[in-house]
Automatic annotation (TrEMBL), chain B:
GO CC annotation: inner kinetochore; nucleus
Pfam families xrefs: CENP-I
Protein name, per record: Centromere protein I
Subcellular location, record wording: Chromosome, Centromere; Nucleus
Length: 369, 755
């Protein structure tokens, strides 16, 4: 908050998104034409040296000019490292997760996970009893388990992902030791370099949080994390612009056998009831369409995404005389994963887990920056 | 209170206010309806009430209450004919005051006595009991006295039930409970009464201590349960007994029962909230921030926390966690740490600033002025980062126009912004999070929502390069500026003036803190001045266009000139080497304005410009060295040009020669023959009325006045008259810029004789 010390340093800004994430109601396909003026004579820059000023700096850049039409890599085949536990990965797939973005955790330490589970357990019990008069003699039969998800990272610099589970203790001791899982949540950071650069070592950056289970549990656990590590959870929604990116990137993935059709859901806000338009395509057709559009190998560009969606629109228009571009895309599901605009995601394909998460991390980082 | 009931209540009060002719009842009825869900009624009803008389009415209400209490104390007067009417009137007074401000504990003492003594009828007792709402607390003695009335059995069963319900609801506001606990046996005996049983159970539940749990009571309870079946209230009490004395109760009780008691406080729900807020609510005064944790926010929809701003807690968890693996040195360090909860005064902060234990959630500092001091001087990067993240995310999350249908929380968001602005004013410094928030939210802003808060946030943008901030903020603001009403334009100009002032203050502090030479790039003085002057030019451009759009509105011009009053004094007031003149569009609009105060303000500004420029000039001559901040001769020229026009118009009556040049041919075409002196201090449209009244003052009986007669000596008398009318700006201007000689001439600043 004070004058910046004398230093002049450039740093990379996030090459991301043309629109402010919350702007759900507006479709942001119309990317303004303003080209990034590489102008900026040095004296036009106030380059602060404190991290706060740096951050402000990058926000200015993000907001001021739209970066070159973004390019992203097509998610590659499994980049999971060898030491990842296949059982745990299987556990993460085929579940619907609610997405949250999370600011860096202050003084989080991986060596204290045991301790954290004890504390969180106590906290949950205390919270659940709040509404009750006095709990007599009974104990809440839950157990909180923290565990790391080894190898769940994009680069070596990414902090380790970790998983929090709430299990009910089995009533009968003879039954198998593993109780029923009541709630699961996990924290991860895949290719979160841009965020890592700006924070000091007291912080652990795990910008993406995914939860599955009762909302009330998420609330309790989130509150505990917020109180303990001074972080902030906010629901991560996915706007139509990003959904179409997902559609394109996931269609571009090579999948050995398709488990689901490629499906889009559009919503038309009309009274008295809103109208939903579902559009299902055979995944191979979608892939064929993509291949006809796709030029640069290994990369997806903004033009390609737009073209892909335009092709779908015009096809639909030819048959039904409805301009889908005037409606709002709310859900995309493919064989790789499916995503809903409310911030719900389900990952189906083991191979592209990291790729999907990398994009979600990017969105989460954008939200907290 | 259920919504339906409340509506009824409000209706009743409406009737009161219409029926009664005493003013204070009307007002208090109006005030009562300020409950959150009744806002519609306020607007409907409140319009007729002059709020200005409010305090007066308050006093009246006090007196009326006194009278009412005395009336009740004396008891009903049998003989009086309009007994019912008086009773009704006094009852209403009590009700209104109670619901509005609550009653003092003495008043409650008296009225409670009356309600339970059965002096009046049942209906009256009920009404009195219902409005026993404390202003702050209820004294224990009143409760004990009231219970003693229950023993003599003067009141009906329904009154008793209501009394117990009231006792349960107000339990937390009773100042002490030892005496009441001594009556435990009496209450327990009342369990016999079927009607009272649930409420007595609830009261006992609140009252029970370990020593109250006795075998005979357990037996009695089990008997009751056998008689009445599994009643939730009995179960509650039993489970509590079991909790205290597990050995005494062997019956199994169902676990996890959420609701044991019917909510007996619902009659008083609104009142309770009000009392709680009164007892610990934040003080409304600006700049007086709360010391310590004070956060009562009754309704909160989110899971995040009870209130937007987290409650202050020292990080107990980290302490606990570290205990195990603490090294010796850590241990030594931490032993001296100072817990936040004990921090109450500024000297304490100073003494312990090195070992302060920081809050677990940094956002909580926003409500704590002491910690804001700390935040202000701390260089610890994680502390600032934590605060930054928290504030940015909260602003994003709470901002009401990001999400559809979020507008119902507008009030909350407004309050939050107010808190932030208070903190910024307190620190005299803007937060980076707010700036970042503005970048993102300003393009989506409608210009209406939270307008004053938003514009204040703008005025607290930390100093930075104008050209960099312009496309992010000011361009968006300009769009709103040009398309909105004149009031919006004025408020924008006002906040830009404050922004300028904040920047200037910051810069003037900054310069004095460090030598100019080793400042970093672009925070060099030159760069900073450049940025400030760009801001001023930008506002000049905005103002000129706005003047055109609003067809030279005087009102707008006042705000514009206010801005330039700041601008003209930068050199002297802030000791910064910058003089920027106003654009011609503003200068001439002001000079030709029909409003005297505008012209006066213009004179004052010109006078200050002159002072600043001469001071700058003097400095230059003294220093002799050519520093980079010498003003270009263009500034002097420009000033002299303005000065010539002004003196030409107002003083020498040669308006269109120098300064404003208009071709004589065009002037001829206008057909005005005497144009030369038509703009001097006598004939200028804004001075003409002064001239006339000056002449009338001299010779009141005169039927026709000839203003041209003001000449020679009269001219200077006239000037004295003008000055005596409060035109100080004009006085200063004429004293400094015009030579009193036979040939008045403008005295410009000579810019040619430099060096």
């Amino acid at each position: 908050m004070k004058p910046p010390p004398p230093k002049f340093k450039r740093f990379s800004c996030l090459s991301l998104l043309t629109s402010w994430d919350y702007r759900q109601t507006m479709d942001s396909y119309d990317v303004p034409e303003s080209t990034p003026s590489a102008s900026s004579r040095p004296e036009d820059y106030f380059v602060g040296a404190t991290p706060l000023q740096k951050r402000l700096e990058s926000i200015r850049k993000q907001t001021s000019f739209i970066p070159t039409p973004p390019r992203r890599k097509v998610p590659q085949c499994s980049q999971l490292q060898e030491d990842v536990d296949p059982q745990k990965v299987a556990f993460l797939l085929h579940k619907q997760w609610t997405l949250y973005s999370l600011t860096p955790l202050y003084k989080f330490s991986y060596s204290n996970l045991k301790e954290y589970s004890r504390l969180l357990n106590a906290f949950i019990v205390a919270e659940k009893q709040k509404g009750l008069a006095v709990e007599v003699g009974e104990d809440f039969n839950i157990k909180v388990i923290f565990s790391t998800l080894l190898g769940m990272k994009g680069t070596q610099r990414d902090p380790e992902a970790f998983l929090v589970q709430i299990q009910s203790k089995s009533q009968l001791p003879s039954e198998n030791r593993e109780g029923k899982v009541l709630w699961t949540g996990w924290f991860c950071c895949i290719f979160g370099d841009s965020l890592l650069e700006t924070v000091s070592e007291d912080f652990t950056c795990l910008p993406l949080f995914l939860a599955n289970g009762a909302e009330s549990n998420t609330a309790i656990i989130g509150t505990w994390f917020q109180k303990t590590f001074d972080c902030y959870f906010s629901p991560l929604t996915i706007n139509a612009f990003n959904l179409s990116w997902m559609a394109a990137m996931w269609t571009a993935c090579k999948v050995d056998h398709y488990v689901a059709t490629t499906e889009f859901l559009w919503s038309v806000p009309c009274s008295p009831q809103s109208l939903d338009i579902s559009y299902a395509i055979h995944p191979e057709d979608a892939k064929a369409l993509w291949d006809s559009i796709h030029k640069t190998p290994g990369e997806v560009t903004q033009e390609e995404v737009d073209l892909f969606m335009d092709c779908l629109y015009s096809h639909f228009h030819r048959h039904f005389k409805i301009h889908l571009s005037a409606t709002r895309l709310v859900r995309v599901s493919t064989s790789v994963a499916s995503a809903h605009t409310d911030g719900k995601i389900k990952i189906l394909c083991h191979k592209y887990l990291i790729g999907v998460l990398a994009y979600l991390t990017e969105l989460a980082v954008f939200q907290i920056e | 209170m259920s919504p339906q009931k409340r509506v009824k209540n409000v209706k009743a009060q409406n009737r009161i206010s219409q029926g009664s002719n005493s003013f204070q009842t009307t007002l208090s009825a109006w005030k009562v309806k300020q409950g959150p869900s009744n806002s519609k009624n306020i607007s409907k009803h409140g319009q007729n009430n002059p709020v200005g008389d409010y305090e007066h009415a308050d006093d009246q209400a006090e007196d009326a209450l006194q009278m009412a209490v005395e009336y009740f104390e004396k008891g009903p007067v049998k003989t009086s004919q309009n007994k019912d009417k008086t009773l009704e009137k006094h009852l209403k007074t009590v009700e209104n005051v109670a619901w509005k401000n609550g009653l003092a504990s003495e008043e409650i003492d008296v009225l409670l006595n009356i309600a339970l003594s059965g002096k009046f009828g049942n209906a009256v007792n009920t009404r009195i009991l219902k409005c026993m709402i404390p202003a702050t607390v209820i004294s224990q003695d009143s409760v004990v006295k009231a219970v003693s009335w229950l023993c003599v059995d003067k009141c009906s069963g329904s009154t008793k039930v209501l009394f117990y319900r009231w006792l349960v609801a107000m339990f937390d506001f009773i100042d002490r409970k030892e005496q009441i606990n001594l009556l435990y046996g009496f209450f327990f005996a009342s369990l016999q009464d079927d009607a009272l049983c649930p409420y007595v159970c609830h009261l006992l539940y609140l009252l029970t201590k370990k020593e109250n749990v006795k075998p005979f009571r357990v037996r009695k309870l089990l008997d009751l349960q056998a008689k009445m079946g599994m009643q939730p209230h009995l179960q509650a009490l039993l489970s509590l007994y079991k909790f205290f004395a597990p050995a005494l109760i062997s019956v199994s009780l169902p676990v996890r029962k959420k609701i044991y008691f019917k909510n007996s406080e619902n009659l008083w729900k609104m009142a309770l909230l009000a009392v709680k807020q009164r007892n610990q609510g934040p003080s409304p005064e600006p700049l007086k921030l709360m010391l310590g944790p004070a956060n009562v926010r009754p309704l909160k929809r989110k899971w995040n926390s009870l209130s937007i701003i987290p409650v202050l807690n020292s990080s107990s968890y980290t302490k606990e966690c570290r205990k195990k693996e603490m090294s010796l040195s850590d241990c030594l360090n931490r032993s001296g740490s100072f817990p936040l909860e004990q921090l109450k005064s500024f000297p304490q902060l100073l003494q312990n600033i090195h070992c302060l234990e920081l809050p677990s959630q940094m956002g909580s500092v926003l409500n704590n002025s002491l910690l804001l001091h700390y935040i202000n001087c701390v260089r610890d990067e994680p502390v600032l980062l934590r605060f930054y993240y928290w504030l940015s995310q909260t602003l994003q999350e709470e901002c009401i126009w990001y999400k559809v249908n979020n507008y119902e929380h507008g009030k909350e968001f407004t309050n939050f912004l107010d808190t932030i602005i208070r903190a910024e004013c307190f620190l005299q410094e803007g937060f980076y999070s707010c700036e970042a928030f503005l970048y993102k939210s300003l393009p989506l802003w409608d210009g209406l929502c939270c307008r004053s808060q938003f514009l204040q946030l703008v005025s607290w943008i930390p100093f930075s390069s104008f050209s960099e901030v312009k496309p992010l903020l000011f361009d968006h603001l300009a769009q709103l500026f040009f398309t909105s009403t004149i009031y919006f334009k004025c408020s924008v100009l006002q906040s830009l003036k404050e922004l300028l002032q904040n920047w200037l203050l910051w810069l003037s502090m900054d310069i004095h803190m460090k030598p100019v030479t080793n400042s970093p790039l672009e925070t060099t003085l030159g760069g900073s001045m450049n940025s400030v002057s760009k801001l001023i030019h930008y506002v000049g451009w905005l103002s000129t266009t706005a003047m055109r759009l609003e067809s030279n509105s005087t009102f707008l011009l006042h705000f514009i000139l206010d801005f330039y009053e700041k601008v003209c004094d930068i050199y002297i007031n802030y000791n910064l080497p910058l003089v920027v003149l106003f654009p011609p569009g503003i200068f001439y609009s002001a000079l030709l304005s029909l409003d005297t105060s505008i012209l006066n303000q213009l004179c004052f500004i010109m006078h200050r410009y002159r002072k600043n420029l001469t001071a700058a000039k003097k400095n230059e001559l003294v220093q002799k060295t050519k520093s980079e901040f010498n003003f270009s001769s263009k500034t002097y020229q420009e000033f002299n040009h303005y000065l010539t026009s002004m003196v030409g118009c107002l003083w020498t009556s040669k308006p269109f020669g120098k300064g404003i040049y208009i071709d004589p041919e065009i002037l001829e075409k206008t057909g005005v023959t005497e144009y030369k002196n038509s703009l001097n201090v006598i004939h200028h449209p804004s001075f003409l009325s002064y001239a006339v009244s000056f002449l009338l003052q001299e010779s009141p009986e005169e039927r026709t006045v000839n203003v041209s007669s003001i000449q020679g000596k009269k001219w200077s008398w006239y000037l004295d008259y003008l000055f005596s009318q409060g035109l100080q700006g004009l006085k200063l201007f004429i004293r400094s810029s015009v030579h009193h000689s036979s040939v008045p001439r403008a005295e410009g600043i000579n810019y040619n004789n430099q060096y």
